[in-house]
Predict the 3D structure of the following.
Amino acid sequence: MRWGWLLVLVCTAAVAEPSLQALQRQAIAERKAQVLAMQALGEKLFFDPSLSGSKAISCSSCHQPALAFSSPVALMPGGATLQRLGNRAVPSLGYTQNIPAFTEHFFENDGNDSIDNGATGGLTWDGRVDRAKDQVLIPLFATNEMAAGNNQSLAAAIKAAPYWPTFKALFEPARLANDENIVRRATDSLAAYLHSPLFYPYSSKFDAVEAGKAQFSAEEKRGFSLFNAPDKGNCASCHFSSRDASGSPPKFSDYGMIALGLPRNDAISENQNPAFYDMGLCGPYRQDLADKPQYCGLFRTPSLRNVALRKHFFHNGVITTLHDAIEFYATRDTNPGRWYPKGPGGHVQKFNDLPKKYWGNINMDPPFGGKPGDQPALTEQDIQDIEAFLGTLTDGYQP
């Protein structure tokens, strides 16, 4: 009998462990199913114009899948009657899942030393929110964007939508107990959708070349070399083009904050007031760093993946072709009259979108630099080659 009981105990122990593993696998499967269901719900929310005050625009109106979730125009019409324009260029939503939380001191270890890269991160042009579920609230409630009103009106729109039964099936009643909770479940679902692989497929020609499945053309190869060369494009100093310490594919951004001294975009309604300046980290839309003048004029560096699909560039959308965006870097200082208006007496009003007392914040690294009339760091052929390389960062490449 003793041996029989021992055999039972051994068998029970052998069965118990696989059962525990089975429960863990079941829990993981259930969580995965929950995330997939939230992503599917988030997709419905993303394309639903009924969430806007005008009932005419959705998230997808400004972030179109065919343009890698960027916009066909820099300043989209919005508001309750679609009569107002955005105050900043619409950013792409692609490849945002790895953007770190904002910090004034981002330390990067290059294998030898820990380097302070300064202000870095955050999901908006000025880095003022860190989580996707918080970021989506900004356009939803902005009076010049989707203009959804408040929690009550947005929750009412959600409850009137055909996917409301999905909400009730997916979330516990306590998590939908009031308007604020309903809105939060909506933003949770939108965040889940924004974090789905659809937004970071890594399927460009560049990725195929890295995998040994394709080769750059001669022009693309020259462009990549110029992109990386510190004395030429110097693009890789901010738009990292190599794998990080984890071995993941390059994101083509360090997510750092930089002041480029862009020309003013007069299409932005606030800019009709000559005393108004959008100064990024130090205001006016971000308030917590307003007392730090070293941040005035700085905006987050976007990823260059799918940049060839974009129709506008930089935080104010003042430049509308990729060729011109590259040329701006090359000739901002050697030919400022190409970019800035002329004032009385024909004087070029350089850096006209930032008060002069903050001009010291403006980046002067190559290819910037020089004085009017100097030879720019990049020739026209160089610019074309870099543009050709940037075209290899467009997803959907078929070898």
About this structure: The chain is about 35% helix and 5% strand. Strands lie at 77-78, 84-85, 107-109, 114-116, 257-258, 299-300.
